[in-house]
Amino acid sequence: MPEPEVVDVAVIGLGPGGEHLASSLATAGLSVVGVDRRLVGGECPYFGCIPSKMMIRAAGALAEARRVPELGGAADVAPDWTTVADRIRDEATDDWDDAVAVERLERSGARFVRGHARLAGPGRVVVSTDEGDREIAVRRGVVLNSGTEPAVPPIPGLAGTPYWTNRDAVRVRDLPESLAVLGGGAIGCELAQAFARFGVSVTVIEAFDRILGPEEPEASAVVHAAFEAEGIAVRTGVGVTAVAHEGAFSIGLADGTSVGADALLVAAGRRANLGDIGLETVGLDPEARAIEVGKRMRVKGAKGLWAIGDITGKGAFTHMSMYQADVAIRDLTGEKGPWADYRAVSRATFTDPEVGSVGMTEQQARDAKLRVGVGRAELPASSRGSIHKVGNDGLIKVVADLDRGVLVGATAVGPCGGEIIGMLVTAVHARVPLAKLRRMHFAYPTFHRAIETALGDVS
Ligand SMILES: Cc1cc2nc3c(=O)[nH]c(=O)nc-3n(C[C@H](O)[C@H](O)[C@H](O)COP(=O)(O)OP(=O)(O)OC[C@H]3O[C@@H](n4cnc5c(N)ncnc54)[C@H](O)[C@@H]3O)c2cc1C
Ligand SMILES: NC(=O)c1ccc[n+]([C@@H]2O[C@H](COP(=O)([O-])OP(=O)(O)OC[C@H]3O[C@@H](n4cnc5c(N)ncnc54)[C@H](O)[C@@H]3O)[C@@H](O)[C@H]2O)c1
């Protein structure tokens, strides 16, 4: 192997956070090498957030058009997936080509290497490229941002069938007539509804007793009911025992029934890319499910090593990866903080109704032994909800710590739930006293005005 290249920082994996960190540190004057074995930008722009949200935007437009008869006349809806598939290929992913992202990274001053990187002891990285292996030695540190792969459960018969993961689903050009979705988490629910609105007959199979398990049970129930009202079959609390594929899929369930479908999407969670990045060479466990980090994103138990993004287990979201990147950038450039704070982590699941949430669920607050108060407001009963009429399903739920008189969590389900949650994120993040929140102005007639009702209901 040639002499190692010596740089300030090496970044293994260029997901959203890794790309941001590499270019920011290079702009700040550090010498940086960023390595990715696939596409610069990671899952979000090519296989995740952006293509899925383009599908959802189109599906939402169809759904709104179908609501016209209840509100103001007639609308013919003739779905055409070609527009969506073209948009994902041309506008989101450049036909899954990262040349623009690579150029942007290199313009910042960072060097990019395409290849598989692994740690080779403290402060050393080996990259396997098409031209052979090369070694990098770092002065300040190595940042891990290796992200995740779709997890495929060991169900008898599944391996070897032409099932999809999210990476196939975003590249689909011809829609199947029917689709089974294995897993009713965020990926499964978002994609299930998008395909169903284009006329695909969809069945969601979820082993847990409700879909969207990490959300408040009330949010799961509203989305479940909306799915069934749209004709999406939802099977909860039942595991899959076997999968067979002979022309079409046959999915055997633990209750003795089976689901048939032309296509099968496996959306059963993610597996962190930790097994093949040389963790054992720095005394860490390559079998771990997540990397333990402190509040500066330094990896616990290893010197000169930082980790950001999904692999830290703090929330698999693009905004988390970016947030943690900013924390690590501050640490690597000698700033004095602020360091990571996870009290007011927010997320939006882009089903319709949309689910926005922040901080703790009621159960998490009770498990944390807080003196919990809860308030709810149903959107259909609000002025805006009743004006909105069709498509107004949803609610606001707030979770308070009564001893401190502040909110510790909240959920907004309904039209624009992911936007409405914004003001509640501020409330949880800034610990705005409940008494102060209750005395705010809430514009009439908005959806967010239901927050006032929920605050008044806290007990
Ligand atoms: C369908 C779908 C929809 C989603 N929607 C949303 C959403 O709406 N909002 C949201 O916030 N989040 C969403 N997410 C989650 C989001 O995509 C991730 O949280 C985000 O990509 C951050 O991931 P990351 O930074 O950990 O790395 P990733 O994006 O997973 O990227 C990791 C990179 O590391 C590379 N890599 C791995 N190992 C190596 C190695 N050894 N050497 C070199 N390179 C390596 C990979 O090739 C990859 O490019 C969605 C995910 C999916 C799948
Ligand atoms: N809008 C967003 O922010 C967004 C959208 C999509 C994904 N994401 C992120 O990506 C992560 C991964 O998403 P995901 O939906 O794949 O994972 P997930 O872990 O959220 O959901 C997977 C679901 O599959 C179920 N499951 C697992 N094995 C099963 C089996 N054998 N049979 C039936 N059900 C089974 C689980 O019970 C779980 O409900 C999410 O946690 C989220 O952080 C975010």
From TrEMBL:
The keyword NADP does not apply. Binds 1 FAD per subunit. It comes from the Bacteria. GO terms for molecular function: flavin adenine dinucleotide binding; NAD(P)H dehydrogenase (quinone) activity. NAD(+) binds at G183, G184, G185, A186, I187, G188, C189, E190, E206, G269. Disulfide bonds join C44-C49. Residues 345-454 form the Pyridine nucleotide-disulphide oxidoreductase dimerisation domain. Its cofactor is FAD. Residues 8-325 form the FAD/NAD(P)-binding domain. Keywords: FAD, Flavoprotein, NAD, Nucleotide-binding. FAD binds at K53, D310. InterPro entries: FAD/NAD-bd_sf, FAD/NAD-binding_dom, FAD/NAD-linked_Rdtase_dimer_sf, Pyr_nuc-diS_OxRdtase, Pyr_nucl-diS_OxRdtase_dimer. Belongs to the class-I pyridine nucleotide-disulfide oxidoreductase family. This is NAD(P)/FAD-dependent oxidoreductase. It comes from Nocardioides albidus.
